[in-house]
Amino acid sequence: MAQETGPGAGAPAAQDGSGWYARLIAQAGGRHQLLVVALLSATLGLAAGYQTIVGAVAPELKHDLRIDNAQVGLLITAASLLGAATTLPFGVLADRTSRIRLLAICLVSWSASVLLAGLAPSFTVLLIAQLALGAGIGAATPVVASLIGDIFGSGDRGRIYGLILTGEFVGASIALVVAGQVAAWFTWRASFLVLVVLGPLVAWGLLRMVPEPARRQDSVAAAVEGVQHDSALTSLVARSGTKPYGDQVLREDPTRWPLWTAIKYVLTIRTNVLMIIASALVYYYVAGLQAFIVVFLRGRYDLGQGAATFLLTFVGVVVVIGTLIAGPLSDRLVARGKIWARPVVGGLACLFAVAFAAPGLLIPAFLVGFPIILIGGIGMGAVNPPLDAGRLDIMHSRLWGRAESVRTFLQTLGKSSAPLVFGWLSVALSPIGADPNREQGGGAEGLTNALILGLVLLVIAGLLLLVVARQTYPRDVATAIASEAATR
Q: What does the DSSP 8-state code read for residue 432?
């Protein structure tokens, strides 16, 4: 499969037709690669979408089961935290077992959990269903990351991550809209039941159409293929004379390492730690923004619920634009000899977001402020693809699953408090005499101040990537290449 994913692999495919579909085939590197991208996007989209159903049907859920906001929050938080905990053992499985089969099993288990939720006669059963969902959701990120590393070359991963993250975002958004509309037309139970069938369908597609890719260390052929596949980075390291960190070059295959040994090693890789911190800071801000964006739009611009919800469409569009721009940009810079491109593009995206979001939040006029905020949203969408691709470049291939599970675990734990903190800040930073809980109108000054203050997190993330990670990244890439060679 790897030989089809080089930079020029998509060119012939584009001759099969014109228009957006042909361009999409070219972006993915061929028809089969586009199918792989679609299925992996669908997997991540379902993982995110299944977790949003409770939020989409919360009003009907509260009325029917006679529960309050705290219990709704518990349903969502329980699934999220359990998913964070189980991502670590799933990271181990991603490095040792058949990943396609593992994803297929998990997809079916997710659907079974959603089915149980749709049939739940009480809050207790619904909570059990959510816990079961969370227990399986932890597989999505580490397993998909490991597959991307073995299916696509390092020179293409930024672009591929951009496509997959876009598909994940679109899929999760569709699931959210469908769940909400079905609940409005029928019942909240129907929202769960309608989406049940999607998991087995995607599982069937993976088993039927995506063979388990060879791992880099599995055979001489796979090793040779891996060298050719990553020749751009290998050549850059050789030409620049970049030396690995000698004490971090692996001399043994880490496949059977105990989980704790693997965790300790991945957290000694300097750039990996910096990227984890930077990503966590960005996700923390985004989590707070997601929790209060409708409240902000209604209060800041004196909009109704329908108008505020409609504006979220534009927010989604600009995030997708940023995602699709950043990945290919980092790939092109790497191809032009800029080995530091991944952290630099991610860092610039953070600062770009701040440069536009800050004045946009300060301007109370909707027709001026909101478009500027949208431009900043492009930067927020641009952060992840280069960082996701970069984490694979600096890690031994047999640690991809566990490394990504560590990142997901820490990031999920970190961002879980964001809604609470931003909510508290919105009250603390409100002017004296103002009502911070006013739903519409009033300028939402406290919340606006909280969101502006939170931009400091993006500044810190951007500087970590631009100033520090830019320096450590080349040597960590060299260390990963040396480790692959020493353990081959």
A: T
Q: Give dist(CA 226, CA 213) in Å, integer.
A: 12
pLDDT above 70 for 429? yes
Q: What 3-state DSSP class applies to 68?
A: coil
Quick one: DSSP state of residue 466? Answer: I
Q: Other CB atoms closer than 10 Å to residue 178's CB: what's the count? A: 17
Indicate whether 10 pLDDT > 60. Answer: no
Please give the radius of gyration of the chain, using alpha carbons only, rounded to the nearest integer.
Answer: 22
Contact 90, 138 (CB under 8 A): yes
Closest CA to 244 of 469, 476, 468, 486: 476
Phi, psi (deg, nearest 5) at residue 212: -60, 120
pLDDT at 110 over 80: yes
Alpha carbons within 13 angstroms on the beta-carbon side of residue 172 total 20
Residue-level pLDDT at 53: 82
* Residue 129 pLDDT > 70: yes
As a whole number of angstroms, the distance between CA 32 and CA 29 comes to: 8
CA pair distance 4, 10, nearest whole angstrom? 8
Rounded Cα gap, residues 204 and 210, in angstroms: 10
Average pLDDT over residues 251-256: 90
Residues whose CB is less than 8 angstroms from the CB of residue 269 and which lie 6 or more positions away in sequence, other chains included: 248, 394, 395, 476, 479
Interval 22-51 mean pLDDT: 82
Q: pTM score, two decimals? A: 0.81
Q: Mind listing the pLDDT tens digit for each residue in 458-476?
A: 999 999 999 999 999 999 9
Q: Using alpha carbons, select from 232, 216, 269 the residue that is nearest to residue 158.
A: 232
**Is 393's pLDDT higher than 50?**
yes
Residues 6 or more apart whose Cβ sits within 8 Å of residue 409: 84, 85, 87, 88
Q: Among 101, 98, 120, which Cα is nearest to 109's?
A: 101
Which structure tokens are listed for 368?
């001026």
Task: Return the amino acid letter for 309.
Answer: T
Token digits of residue 255: 């496949």
b/e map of 36-47 (b: 16 or more CB within 10 Å)?
A: bbbbbbbbbbbb
Question: CA 447, CA 345: separation in Å to the nearest integer?
Answer: 29
pLDDT value of position 443: 63
Judge whether 388 and 331 are in contact, CB under 8 Å: no
Q: What letter would DSSP give residue 244?
A: P
Mean pLDDT of the region 377-392: 92
Mean pLDDT (the chain) is 84
pLDDT at 356: 97
In sequence order, which residues have a C-beta less than 8 Å from that of residue 298 and are 6 or more positions away? Answer: 304, 305, 308, 439, 440, 441, 444
